[in-house]
Amino acid sequence: MIRLQFDADGYSVVYNADRVMLLAKEFALLRFLYDNRNQVFTREQLLDRVWPLEYPVERTVDDHIYRLRKKLKAWTGLRIHTVRGYGYSLTLTDIQPRNHPSLHDQEVQDAVHGLFRKYHLLGQGDSIVALAEQQEQLGFQMSAYYQMYIRFVQADVSWFLKREDFAPADRLYWMLLLYTGTAAVTDHGLALCERAFTSGLLSSDQERELRILNILEAYVEHGQPERAQEGLPLTFMIMERDDLDKFVMPVALMEMYMHLVANHMEKVAELSDRLEGMLSVAPYLRELGRYRMLRGLMLLRTGDVDNAERLMDEGLGTLDMAKQELLKIKAVSQIRSFLKLCGPYPMLEEKYAAQYDQLDRDNCLTLHRSALKRWLEQILSVA
């Protein structure tokens, strides 16, 4: 049977890999109906249970039911029925586990995971989530890596904190990047990254990616572009040695951001032209969204505020379309830091501060940040 997970801190509900954000009363109404499934309730009963100290009209229930149906329409195993002349009832469809032959067919499993890898390369978080939701119907087992990757791109800190079935070493890399990627990078965040190098808990691939890309961008976000510049020769050497073609665009984007912060505009223009060429051949959504945002920052440096704002918004929209929630949060944080660096632009600062606050509320970032910090400190202190 379909099973929902309720996160009361952020008024969200999760089924499989799909998280839906609700308003407070939508959340309370769904939870009541879910806890009392297969029972029929009148509007008056629902008003009494969900709005006990308020005085809404019966139409309030109808409106909330309408919004719930709209938000949850993709979850075919869940239905909210209208019982004519009486009220509403929620039912869940029994889903019998299927012993698909494909579960034991290595060629099918390899083909599906090849799709995951390709969508990952293309930056299509939305496609990865859609494929993950079809495990039962298509008959495949999703790897632990992609179970975590999906939650990572969705910035689902709560999921990582609660998943004791994954070893701390398996979660460390993802949770470290969630800590440094969902708020301004601090001295403490950099120290945690540097301790991770000597912890022995990261895989060789994770340690390499942290060293050649993630920590360099963290230096730039911390206002130390010169430290990132110092690390680039090692990055280029490792990329050439290990034939890491998939890092070419992400590193170029990081380098463009580094030169923007350092106000090296000739280098920024060179990298922008280079990225334009790469994206014309391989318009990967993740990189395209990041590039449009950085082009906006580039125009901001030149004083072209209107076009800068348009491009920054296009970049954020592309990341949103691709369900790259963590990168969207990170991009908004970088925009805010850059506005302070080359401003003042009070209207833009207010706009993107409001966007970050909304992302913070939607993803419960502040709520879980202390727990995330404690978890990282504990794991790295005993390594």
Q: For the report, how would you describe the main beta sheet?
A: 3 strands, antiparallel
* CATH class membership of the largest domain: Mainly Alpha
Number of domains: 3
Query: Hey, roughly how much beta strand do the residues contain?
Result: 5-15%
Unreliable stretches (pLDDT < 50, length at least 5) are none
Rounded mean pLDDT score: 91
Task: Give the overall shape, derived from the CA principal axes.
Answer: globular
Number of helices: 19
Task: Return Rg in Å.
Answer: 23 Å
Number of strand elements: 6
Could you say which structural class the secondary elements and strand pairing correspond to? mainly alpha
Strand order of the largest sheet: 1-2-3
Listing every helix as H and every strand as E from the N terminus to the C terminus, the arrangement reads EEEHEHHEEHHHHHHHHHHHHHHHH
Here the CATH topology of the largest domain equals Serine Threonine Protein Phosphatase 5, Tetratricopeptide repeat
DNA-binding region: 1-92
InterPro entries: OmpR/PhoB-type_DNA-bd, Sig_transdc_resp-reg_C-effctor, WalR-like, WH-like_DNA-bd_sf
Keywords: DNA-binding, Phosphoprotein, Transcription, Transcription regulation, Two-component regulatory system
Domain OmpR/PhoB-type: 1-92
